[in-house]
Specification:
Blueprint lengths: L1 H10 L2 H14 L7 H29 L1 H22 L1 H6 L5 H6 L2 H14 L3 E2 L9 E5 L5 E6 L9 H4 L16 E5 L6 H10 L2 E4 L1 H8 L4 H4 L11
Length: 234
């Protein structure tokens, strides 16, 4: 079995390996900024720089050096605004999102956002399993395993035992007790959902308000009210 995998990986093209690596990094929240994220800021910075140089040259030539110095004040304000907007991709990669940004994310992007938030809190996000289930797995320095499932709108709670095999990826001896489970939903859970989570045990529901609180920077251990412990750094 291992030889077959080695042969399959050896026969995989460099382009296929690169795409698979990028997909895994993106799913775990460790990828860099995309071009569409930085292109608006770069274009705005280039336009402001060119306009500033041209404006200073024209004003200084027409009205003298003092007028050119006065023009630097609004230019400095514009530069500050552009700089703040350019920080948005870096802030997202660090695991911080506003409520408006969370609402604009589709489900794959929400998985990436939660992966970044977990890494921000000290969890190590494991490589994603090779299936279409929206799911994450993470662990801390003690070996505690954290399962994260995502509930789209108007769908039932997932059956984690049958939907994902990621729990088998970590040997039992490497775990610190049974895994914890999070179910993330941007909406509101019903009473039936809460009863299900209480019956399952070691399961915590992250609804919209808790998710927004977590995205603003509150640690998951505090959001979950102590159900999820503070992870030990790797």
């Amino acid at each position: 079995m291992a030889r077959r995998r080695e042969r399959a990986s050896a026969g995989e093209s460099a382009w296929a390996r690169r795409r698979r690596t990028v997909r895994e990094l993106r799913a775990s929240g460790r990828d860099g900024p995309r071009l569409r994220e930085v292109l608006p800021a770069l274009a705005a910075l280039l336009a402001v720089t060119c306009a500033a140089v041209a404006g200073l040259a024209l004003v200084s030539r027409a009205f003298g050096g003092r007028a050119g110095a006065l023009l630097l004040v609004p230019l400095a304000v514009v530069a500050v605004i552009v700089r703040r907007r350019s920080r948005r991709p870096a802030r997202r990669r660090g695991g911080y999102y506003t409520a408006e940004e969370l609402a604009e994310l589709d489900m794959p992007a929400l998985v990436v956002a939660v992966a970044r938030m977990l890494r921000r809190d000290g969890w190590r996000v494991l490589p994603p399993p090779r299936h279409d289930t929206l799911h994450l797995a993470a662990r801390d320095g003690r070996g505690l395993l954290l399962d994260v499932a995502f509930r789209p709108v108007a769908e039932p709670l997932p059956d984690e035992e049958s939907a994902c095999s990621c729990r088998a990826r970590m040997p039992a001896r490497g775990r610190a007790g049974p895994p914890l489970r999070l179910v993330v939903h941007r909406g509101t859970f019903t009473h039936r959902d809460e009863v299900w989570a209480a019956r399952e045990g070691r399961t915590y529901l992250i609804d919209g308000p808790r998710l927004r609180l977590w995205a603003r920077g509150t640690p998951l251990a505090q959001v979950a009210g102590g159900v999820v412990p503070t992870p030990r750094r790797m």
